Amino acid sequence: PAGADRDAEGAIRLGGVSTRALAAEFGTPLYVIDEEAAREAARMTLAAFRDAATRHGTDAQVYYAGKAFLSADVVRWMLAEGLRVDVCTGGELAVALGAGADPSLLGFHGNNKSMIELAAAVDAGIGSIVIDSFDEIERLGAVLDGRGVAQRVLIRVNSGVHAETHDFLATAHEDQKFGFTIADAPAAAARIREIAGLELVGLHGHIGSQIFGTSGFEESATRLVALLHEIGGLTTLNLGGGFGIAYTSADDPSPIADLADGIVAAVARACGGLGIPLPMLAFEPGRVIIGRAGVTLYEVGTIKPVSLDDGASRLYVSVDGGMSDNARTALYGAQYSARIASRASEARPQLSRVVGRHCESGDIVVDHEYLPADVAAGDVLAVPATGAYCFALASNYNYVPRPPVVAVRGGEARVIVRGESIDDLLARDVGLAARSIEGN
Ligand code: LLP
C-alpha cells in the first residue's frame, strides 16, 4: 500500500476494497491476499523462466512452492496460471489434492518424508519426488515394492554454494541437512537405478531463500550441470526457488526476468562448455509469487513513547497480533514497513516500533518505521509484503487464535481460510473437555 489507492475517507484500498471495511467486516488481525497481484506475479514468473528457456532452446516449468502460503484457492490460482505446485509434507499434499490439482503437476520434496507420506504421494500418482538421502532411496523403494507402479524421481543435490542470506534461509552450504553432496550424488543415482519402479529423471538444487543477486544461482547451476553430465541419462534440472522480494524501500531485488535470464544463461554456458543440450528446467519459487500479494491488517491498541539514550524517543505501537501471525521478525530479524491504513494523516513522522500482544520483548512486527505521530488506538495498521511465510509460520503462542485469510479482487472480498476461535483452541485440550462433561 505505499503510494496506495485510497477511498473517500482516506482509507487504503486493497483489490478495490477499503481496508477500513475489511477490518470492520472480518476483524483484525487479518491476512489479506490480493488475488490479482498473486496471479500476476505467477504469470510474470512463469513467463520470465519460459522466455529465457525458449531463447536457449529448452523449456521451463515453474512449481509454486506451497510452503510459502498454501490454501485451496491459491492452488487453483497457480494451476490456472499454468504453474505446477511443490509440496513438502503430507499436509501440503492433502491441500493440493483436495483443491483438485492434477497429481501429475505436483512435486514433493523434503529431507525426512515418512513412509506414510511417500505412500500417499505414490498412490496419488504424484508427478515427481525429490529424493533427499540414501535412507529415502530405500524407503521409497520399499513403498514401491509390490505396487507395480513407476515413480519419477530427482536427486536433491547440495551444490555447496553459500547463498548470501540469513543463515536459517541458506540451504546449500556444506554443513546442513538437505540433499546429497556432489560427491555422493553419482552413488545415489546408481542405487536409484537398481530399484525397480524408480525412474530417475534429473537433479534438484535449492540454495536458499530471499536471495537478491544471480551469482549464487549461477554458480550452483554450473555445478549441477557438470553433475548432470557426469551422471548421464538425465533430462531435468530443477534449480529450486529463493528469489528475493522487497520488504521495505531499502530492498532492491533484481527483477525476476533478469534473474531468469542470468540463471538460464549460466545453464546454457555450462552445457555449451560440455557440448551437451540444455535439460528441461524447473524452478520452485514461493515468496516472489505470493509475498507482495499479502498485507496484514491490525488494530492499534496501546501506544507508549519510550525515551532513547540519544534523547530521541520511540513510539511503541502495540497491535492485536504479533509473532503468532508473523514470526519472521522474531525469527530472522526480518524488516517490514507499516502504514496507517484506515485514514490519511499529515502528522509528522515519528520513530516507531510496531509490537505485538505476546509475552516477550522479541515480539516485534515492524522493528523500525516512521509512523504519523498522531497514530492512535483504533487505527487500522497495514503491514505489506506478508503473503509469504506469515500465515504459513503462524502459531497459537499464548493461546492466540490464528487470523482468517481474505482474498480481495475487483472490489470484492471473501474468506479463503477461516479464522480460529478460542473454542477451536480449547477443543483440543482433553482436560478441558473432560471437565465440561463432569460439570454438565
Ligand atoms: N524449494 C525448496 C526446496 C525450498 O526449500 C524452498 C524454501 C523453496 C523452494 C521456496 O523458496 P522461496 O522461493 O519461497 O524463497 N521461512 C523462511 C523461508 C524458508 C524457505 C524454505 N524453503 C522465511 O520466512 O523467510
Describe the structure concisely.
Pathway: Amino-acid biosynthesis; L-lysine biosynthesis via DAP pathway; L-lysine from DL-2,6-diaminopimelate: step 1/1. The chain is an alpha/beta fold and 440 residues long.
Report on the architecture of this protein.
With 440 residues, this protein is an alpha/beta fold. It has 2 domains: 13-34 and 292-426, Lyase, Ornithine Decarboxylase, Chain A, domain 1 (Beta Barrel), CATH 2.40.37; 35-291, Alanine racemase (TIM Barrel), CATH 3.20.20.10. The chain is built from 13 helices and 20 strands. The protein has helices spanning 19-26, 35-55, 72-80, 90-98, 115-124, 134-144, 185-194, 215-231, 256-274, 287-290, 328-332, 422-426, 430-439; strands at residues 13-14, 17-18, 30-34, 60-65, 84-87, 106-108, 128-131, 151-158, 180-181, 198-204, 236-238, 280-283, 294-307, 313-319, 339-340, 349-355, 364-372, 380-384, 405-409, 412-417. Strands 3, 13, 14, 15, 16, 17, 18, 19 and 20 form a 9-stranded mixed sheet that branches. The protein has an 8-stranded parallel β-barrel with strand order 4-5-6-7-8-10-11-12, surrounded by 7 helices. A two-stranded antiparallel sheet has the order 1-2. Helix 9 (256-274) links the parallel strand 11 and strand 12 (280-283). Helix 2 (35-55) packs parallel to helix 9 (256-274) and helix 8 runs parallel beside helix 9 (256-274). The longest helix has 21 residues, at 35-55. The radius of gyration is 23 Å and the shape is globular. The protein starts with 12 loop residues before the first strand and ends with a helix. 47% of the residues are buried. The mean pLDDT is 95. The protein binds ligand LLP.
